[in-house]
Amino acid sequence: MKKLHILLILLLLSLSSYAKDNNTSDFGKVEGLIRLYHVFEPAYVKSGRVKDYDIDGSTIGGHIRYYTPELSGFGATTALYYTRGTGLNNKYDINTIMAAGRFFTQNYSPKAVLGELNLHYTDSIHKIVLGRFKVDSPITNAIFTYMPNMYEAFLYENSSLKNTKITIAQIERMAYGSRAPVEFGLIGEATRTGGTTQNAINIRGDFIDVEKQTLADPLAKTNGITALGVVDTSLEDITIRVWDFYAHDIINMLYVDATYKAKDRTLPYRLSAQYLRVDSIGKDLALKWMDAKSAYFIGAKATLKYKKAFAYIAYNHSGNAKILNPWSGDPAYTSSFFSKNAYRANVDAYKIGFNYDLVSNLKLITSHASYSKSTTLGTFAPARPVEVLKEPEYDAFESAILLSYNPFRELNILGGFIYKTSEYSYAGEQVKLLDADLLITYRF
Asked: What is the per-residue pLDDT across 52-71, written as a single tens digit (0 to 9) for each?
């Protein structure tokens, strides 16, 4: 793979040189993002601890991406990701929980990651990508802060069949994104259902064999992940997606959803349904973390838009075993900013949301999700000392009220409050979290 990286860098330079030598104004394309997070003082974590935890997480970072000029459909892409603290964090206070998902390092120091470096080819029917890039699928897509999980892989897309796109991929390595410790700790609560199987606190941005990442085992050796995706729109107003990730000797993850989109312009609405299933396969290398050889959830969602208002209601139900969720993906309709309880065992989850355009560039965003008590062992991992895994004791919920403001197209300011309760206790009392956050994003 090192030889491939050298080849791709040389290609980037040669394509740019070609454009310059041929007196063309096309030197490729540069785009990027600058993002600021800041947690405000009302934020806290309450439990049976004598003193409540404060929350800190003031960071700035982003990415810059370069696309070379294309020659007969061939091109290359590279992107550098970076994050650091603003200097406003109380990171050494034992009574403060740092927002670890906004950094790349365990000690919250600055770090840059070469997250993307790939060669690609595109025409009207085919798309090929080789190198480092984000694999776009329901099994790998989720909320991220500065960098999502990245992969070293080969991907091929074909659109020769009318209204159908077929994708195949072979994934060899994975780098955890910046939010991985939160997916394991605050969100996953050490259940390995929140998007990672380890906290990845000091290996974020490091491209490591995907089986070693999945199993949290530096000695693991398999044939990586073979993926297949089909998106079909041949039925009128209906989109069907099927994705299958076969992690050799570990697990097979199958995801299916269907969405009906009504054509009514005065009252547009969508109806969706989903199914996710995980099976232990081959040598059953991950069975140690699973309740059974297979696990699943189902879901349904309805959305409605009327003038300036947008509303939705969603439901998920999981079976008798938790869903091992190692690659950060989060297709569940009822997931929230800090809660993915639908992947745990025996959960009934409900979520409602309401958004309203107050003015042309100012939007109110609200949601409430309710999760029945699961049967999955877990613990509130961000606390110190960490308590042992235990049975859930409570139903849980998460509510949010946010304002999103776009003073101009490239700039978004998002701020507000998120309140979450856990199904687990710490020091004998239910864990409760209040997040008061500001997020400013500038795209160029």
From this structure: 999 999 999 999 999 999 99
